[in-house]
Amino acid sequence: MIRKPRTPSQPEVVRHLAAFVLLAAFLLSASLAFGQEASADFRLSVGGTADEDVASDDEGEREGYSPDHPLSVGLRSGAWIQSQVEPGVGGFLRFRPFSWLAGEVSTDHYFALDGRRRDHLVGLDLQLPFLGDERFSIGPTAGGSLVVRVSDATLPSDATIYQLLVGGRAGLQGELFLVDRVAAFVSAQAGLFVGENAQVLVTENEIAVSGSVFLEPVALLGAGASYAF
Questions:
Q1: Which of 90, 121, 195, 204 is most deeply packed, by most CB within 10 A?
Q2: Would you kindly state where each structural domain of the chain is located, as residue ranges?
Q3: C-alpha–C-alpha distance, residues 129 and 4, integer Å
Q4: Residues 6+ apart with CB under 8 A from 208
């Protein structure tokens, strides 16, 4: 006997179709939920990277000037320039309470190349580094100096000459922070000093002092580094 294949009834077809629709709806909802989770994870990852960039930027900004460290010390080399050039070295103590204002006490020592003259300076300067940002700044400087000049005698029989000069100076200074609290700078100033050539004549009857006042223009160049603490 040949058995005919069974033809599904209409209710069975409806049940199978309903099951297929439910399965398709489940797969679709699962895929949407997975996509939302992945999108949320991506957004969180991107947000973390942005936060790290902000933190990195903040760290970079801390490498510049900070009011938490207004006091700094430094060393510099430089030159006293007139008819002859005297190289020199010096040091300073600087107080910078604001990014645009600083005061500096310094001492510099210049030596003539022929070894016959030395100029020893003690100075006080006001600095206004208002151009630039926290890391790099440039601005004018102005101040005064007291100079003790020591000149060796030309002849062995002559005495060493000591002269006292006072004057002012003004110019520009640029400063760049290299790493946290460490900065490099260069400066250029023009100054005018007043001094006196004094001579003392001693005789049996009197002591006579004579001399003449002179003006001395000078250019001062410097470059060095400082550390803030």
A1: 121
A2: 7-62, 71-228
A3: 103
A4: 200, 201, 202
